[in-house]
């Protein structure tokens, strides 16, 4: 009887502990994403974001750091944060790379170990590997992407990371942390070495079905996310066949986590060249399916990790970092709103909302969506015709009111990111066409061209891709930049000649319609530097047919302004016709030539397109071949900080047929975000149109860049 009683008590004790374990598993309601954002300024710092479903993430603290990198690191910057909940369920561990990338990719020697009880207050220690282990690792030149896992066999926390010595390649090592998580208790040992002698970085271990799965980046031999498997945590990893990322783009920083109340896992990784993150899902850690269509973020992360947290832990974070600022606004559901150009000013508590021309702003529902933990108290149709309307938002007992003003703006004229606009008027179909660079790609890495049509310079239609380097051009497949085009009548039929930059060479394609399809000539028309030129790039073509002589000229250049005469076929250069023009020391690129009242005008851009001071100057000539006469005050288009307009340049000019009305088409930084983006503003540009006017003597009046544009 006593034995039976003991058995029953033991049974219920085990059942109770099992239920407690289930409750512990079920208590997690939210995902915490730790990440950094880039390679400059305070981008190399730890940030937080939250998600209720593991797919849609929203930044805390306005996407600003939650801890000062300068306080915790030896270099002033940290990257690759990995966060772990401890075995006790109450303590959190974070390890980060101690590094400022501006110092070079082989400049860091340390990592930072961090510990917290509340996810807010962290203690930290810097571990410099060569200084700590001069005999074993004195030649180490980089210490990258540390992570932590609990070893339940030894009841210790194991830290693993990649290191590069003088001989290379990068190898993944491990060591156990001391009891206080302030240093290493053991000398680092090799954890995994590529069987093909490839560099291995960004390791991430997850335990499933009795196996330790080590995902890592294979830095060479094709590159991508690979996996090695072992039944022991610290040894015996065998590399599996194939790659586990689901993209052909460059990737790094894989992180894997299990979804709450699910048997599915998310493998995410940083597609660092395109500035995006990819999420994939699997139930067996072998077969992964892309789930990008379900993913959203109101920030752009770099190499981060995700853990599950409780509702109370989430509320602690919201009380600390659930700010009421512009980061809480997600979408303005009304299609008339031009979301790329909404200007939310937290300091003045104002919101400037541009809408499409013709929108009834006296009867407008903005349909504003905010992040999940913020409520908007002002909803429904509002009248903006008499000025700003107050909108109140609240979270965690806090409230804030913004004055929301709505304006009908037509700059930018194209929706999305485009640059280097060329414009023509087609006599064939009586429409205007803009031929821009497709922008918004890191490092100007776009590979295709589009065109847009308009009957009136106001309303523009996207006509789609007209030339794709990867499909349509045999001699280049990268850097699709700065095109130009011209309409010519050949044997009674209209032909369209399209000159474009690809891989820092200039090509030409031909079509029977201004919307294509354009057929490439098969080789660059300008493929090398002209004789005597030892600077700049062969980019930024401009095509011009002289109305006096009927001859056609192709201009181009970065760092120099060159011109050649074209043969009648428009796809080949007249031999020995190259001439170097002299626009002076302000010339950078983006030549534009046009003719008015007997004068030839030459416009160009000064400074770097990534500079807020990118701007346009001009000269005149009596011939399409110069010499150039440079006016004393020849600056005609530049920034307007008071309007939030910066980086105005690389223009073309169009004359409205049968009038003396002229317009300049140019790009600028995205407004309002561009000026905050650093050099990345130079490949997140947008196209605008404004009037260009002339004095009685033919000189060009300074152009006033506007928000309203052509109306």
TrEMBL record:
<keyword id="KW-0326">Glycosidase</keyword>
<dbReference type="GO" id="GO:0045493">
    <property type="term" value="P:xylan catabolic process"/>
</dbReference>
<dbReference type="InterPro" id="IPR052176">
    <property type="entry name" value="Glycosyl_Hydrlase_43_Enz"/>
</dbReference>
<comment type="similarity">
    <text>Belongs to the glycosyl hydrolase 43 family.</text>
</comment>
<dbReference type="InterPro" id="IPR023296">
    <property type="entry name" value="Glyco_hydro_beta-prop_sf"/>
</dbReference>
<keyword id="KW-0624">Polysaccharide degradation</keyword>
<dbReference type="Pfam" id="PF04616">
    <property type="entry name" value="Glyco_hydro_43"/>
</dbReference>
<keyword id="KW-0858">Xylan degradation</keyword>
<dbReference type="GO" id="GO:0004553">
    <property type="term" value="F:hydrolase activity, hydrolyzing O-glycosyl compounds"/>
</dbReference>
<dbReference type="InterPro" id="IPR006710">
    <property type="entry name" value="Glyco_hydro_43"/>
</dbReference>
<keyword id="KW-0119">Carbohydrate metabolism</keyword>
<protein>
    <submittedName>
        <fullName>Family 43 glycosylhydrolase</fullName>
    </submittedName>
</protein>
<keyword id="KW-0378">Hydrolase</keyword>
């Amino acid at each position: 009887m006593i034995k039976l009683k003991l058995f029953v008590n033991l049974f219920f004790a085990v059942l109770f502990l099992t239920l407690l374990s289930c409750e512990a598993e079920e208590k997690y309601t939210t995902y915490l994403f730790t990440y950094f954002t880039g390679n400059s300024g305070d981008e190399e710092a730890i940030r937080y974001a939250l998600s209720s479903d593991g797919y849609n993430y929203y930044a805390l603290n306005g996407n600003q750091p939650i801890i000062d990198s300068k306080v915790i690191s030896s270099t002033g910057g940290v990257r690759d944060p990995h966060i772990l909940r401890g075995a006790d369920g109450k303590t959190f561990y974070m390890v980060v790379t101690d590094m400022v990338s501006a110092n070079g990719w082989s400049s860091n020697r340390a990592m930072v170990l961090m510990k917290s009880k509340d996810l807010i207050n962290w203690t930290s220690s810097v571990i410099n590997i060569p200084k700590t282990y001069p005999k074993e690792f004195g030649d180490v030149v980089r210490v990258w992407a540390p992570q932590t896992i609990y070893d339940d066999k030894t009841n210790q926390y194991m830290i693993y990371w990649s290191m590069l010595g003088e001989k290379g390649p990068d190898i993944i090592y491990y060591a156990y942390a001391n009891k206080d998580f302030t240093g290493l208790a053991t000398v680092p040992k090799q954890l995994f070495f590529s069987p093909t002698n490839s560099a291995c970085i960004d390791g991430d271990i997850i335990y499933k079905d009795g196996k330790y799965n080590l995902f890592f980046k294979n830095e060479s031999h094709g590159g991508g996310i690979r996996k090695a498997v072992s039944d022991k945590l610290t040894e015996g990893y065998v590399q599996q066949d194939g790659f586990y990322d689901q993209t052909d783009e460059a990737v790094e920083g894989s992180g894997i986590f299990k979804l709450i109340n699910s048997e599915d896992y998310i493998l995410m990784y940083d597609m660092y060249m395109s500035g995006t993150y990819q999420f994939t899902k699997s139930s067996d850690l072998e077969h992964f399916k892309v789930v990008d269509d379900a993913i959203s973020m109101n920030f752009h992360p770099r190499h981060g990790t995700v853990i599950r947290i409780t509702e109370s832990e989430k509320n602690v974070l919201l009380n600390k970092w659930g700010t009421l600022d512009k980061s809480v606004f997600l979408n303005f559901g009304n299609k008339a709103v031009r979301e790329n150009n909404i200007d939310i000013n937290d300091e003045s508590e104002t919101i400037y909302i541009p809408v499409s021309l013709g929108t009834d702003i006296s009867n407008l529902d903005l349909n504003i969506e905010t992040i999940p933990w913020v409520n908007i108290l002002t909803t429904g149709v509002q009248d903006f015709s008499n000025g700003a309307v107050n909108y109140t938002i609240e979270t965690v007992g806090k409230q804030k009111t913004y004055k929301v003003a709505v304006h009908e703006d037509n700059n930018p004229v194209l929706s999305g990111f485009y640059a280097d606009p060329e414009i023509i008027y087609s006599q064939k179909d009586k429409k205007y066409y803009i031929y821009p660079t497709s922008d918004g790609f890191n490092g100007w890495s776009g590979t295709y061209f589009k065109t847009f049509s308009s009957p009136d310079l106001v309303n523009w239609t996207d006509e789609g891709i007209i030339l794709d380097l990867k499909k349509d051009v045999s001699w280049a497949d990268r850097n699709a930049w700065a095109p130009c085009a011209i309409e010519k009548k050949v044997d009674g039929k209209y032909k369209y000649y399209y000159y474009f930059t690809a891989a820092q060479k200039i090509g030409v394609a031909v079509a029977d319609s201004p919307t294509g399809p354009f057929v490439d000539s098969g080789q660059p028309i300008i493929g090398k530097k002209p004789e005597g030129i030892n600077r700049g790039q062969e980019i930024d073509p401009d095509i011009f047919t002289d109305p006096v002589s009927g001859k056609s000229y192709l201009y181009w250049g970065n760092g120099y302004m060159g011109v050649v005469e074209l043969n009648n076929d428009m796809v080949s250069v007249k031999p020995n016709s190259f001439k170097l023009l002299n626009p002076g020391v302000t010339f950078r690129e983006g030549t534009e030539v046009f003719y008015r009242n007997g004068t030839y005008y030459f416009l160009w851009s000064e400074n770097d397109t990534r500079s807020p001071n990118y701007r346009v100057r001009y000269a005149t000539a009596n011939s399409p071949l110069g010499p150039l006469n440079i006016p004393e005050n020849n600056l005609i288009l530049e920034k307007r900080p008071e309007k939030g307009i910066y980086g105005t340049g690389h223009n073309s000019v169009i004359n409205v047929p049968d009038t003396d009305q002229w317009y300049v088409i140019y790009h600028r930084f995205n407004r309002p975000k561009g000026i905050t983006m650093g050099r990345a503003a130079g490949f997140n540009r947008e196209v605008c149109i404004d009037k260009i006017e002339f004095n009685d003597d033919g000189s060009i009046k300074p152009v006033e860049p506007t928000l309203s544009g052509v109306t």
